[in-house]
Amino acid sequence: MGLSAAGMASGLDIAGMTQQLVAAERKPKSDRITTQQKQVNVSLSAYGQVKSSVSAMQSMLEKFGKDEAFNGQKATSDNSDYLSIKATAKAKSGVYNIKIQQMAQSHKLMGKESFSADPEASLGSGEMVIKVGDKSMTLNIGEDNDDLSSVVDAINNANDNPGVTATLINKGKDSGSQIVFSTKETGEENTIEIDTSAMTGQLASLAYNADMPAAERKVDQMQAAQDAKIMIDNFTPVSSSNNTFEDVIEGVTLDLKKLTGTSGSESPETDDIDVKSVKITIENDEKSTKDSLKSFVDSYNSLTGTIDKLTGFDADKKPDDPNRAGALNGDSLTRSVSTQMRNLLNEPIEINGKLYQMSDFGISIQRDGTLELEEDSDKLDDIISENFVVIGQFFAKEDSGFLTKADKLLDSFTDKTDGSLSVKEDTLKERQKSLDDDMTDLNKRMVAYEDRTYKQFLAMDEAIGQMNNQLSSMMSLMMSFD
């Protein structure tokens, strides 16, 4: 409210006196709320750092599981222009020679007749049945869609399209267009059949099936539907409906690029190709395992470093040093993160009837709680080489591997619904809101207190004014007696 500078009757600084009283009333309450707000904000920020570090480690462990970081297989092709390869942890070490004898391709047909592109030209009517493999669709062609463009659109946009695409080859303004049919999928099973027996007009000429006599066909086969074919180690023939072979060799995906060469086949197309086969090699990805172990140690040490900084206490610092104690000094919840993780690190895991610990794989726990990876690179390589399969099972074994156990443990802290760190953050946010509400209420009360105090001073000023007037009247009366 607007305050006058001074009392008209008393000469007192009513505004100043009011503000001093309000300030004195506000300060202890405001200071208490502000102090609590700062404490809550500091704690909320600190818990956020802990949760962020825990989540970062959890994300890394989840990525390890998806990438098969500790039991991955490295697959290489000696000529990726012809054949590329990928391998999962299920793959077994080995060397194979692959001959690429045939590439998969789609079925492609072209009508011999040329059709007018004039939108007013009627090409026929009736039912056209198009089949690809064991799927089919029936198109009803009538007056509203019997021109060339509409027929092509009807084929391509049909909801039950069995996997065929119609396109046009335009031969010139006066020569018309030819329709080309091609399958979206490759492989011998994906062949096209077109039944136009219920149609009239030019569209009836698009009938095709493999059993029709060649003399009766008015549709040419531009490209036969065929499977991809390979020969493994010059002994095992394998085929696929597409150019990707999955799990023909367990855990391995082969992606064919082009044909390898042949010898003495009297086919210049392939006899002249110098590359006669592609050698693929599958072996343990020990480097990836080594890198993953190092990443795990670094991530864990980063987490413990964050926790130690926030919960630590440095007695060597002066008592008034704000960095003497961490923001979460003495906090049992935060300490329990590192305590439970350390317990998990010491927990053995059974692999094939034998118990293993982190220390068996070159990872040791130091006195300060951090992890240390074997510094001797050659020694670590030997450990990984000798224990490659066991390391993979130790970390990635379903349900009982370290990755699963660690993820479950960390999730108990970070889960959005009932994770202990998440619950603590929610509690602090509620406290933060409550303190903000307290400050808002205090401001409202102080406005009312200021108004009430000011009015009281005004009343006092008015009373003093009346007393002064009465005193002045009495003095004037007494002087009149003289």
How is this structure best described in words?
The structure is a single chain. With 482 residues, this protein is an alpha+beta fold. It has nine helices and 19 strands. The chain has helices spanning 14-67, 148-157, 268-271, 286-311, 332-345, 377-386, 388-396, 402-414, 420-481; strands at residues 73-77, 83-87, 94-102, 108-111, 126-132, 135-141, 164-170, 177-183, 192-199, 219-223, 228-232, 236-240, 244-246, 252-256, 278-284, 349-351, 354-356, 363-365, 371-373. A hairpin with a 5-residue loop joins β13 (244-246) and β14.
- Number of distinct helices: 9
Name the helix and strand elements from N-terminus to C-terminus, one letter apiece: HEEEEEEHEEEEEEEEHEHHEEEEHHHH
Mean pLDDT: 91
Proportion of helical residues: 40-55%
Structural class: alpha+beta
State the end-to-end CA separation. Answer: 49 Å
Percent strand: 15-25%
Uncertain segments are: none
- Globally, the shape reads flat
Strand sequence of the main sheet, in spatial order? 1-15-3-11-12
In total, the number of strands is 19
Largest sheet: 5 strands, antiparallel
Rg, rounded, reads 43 Å
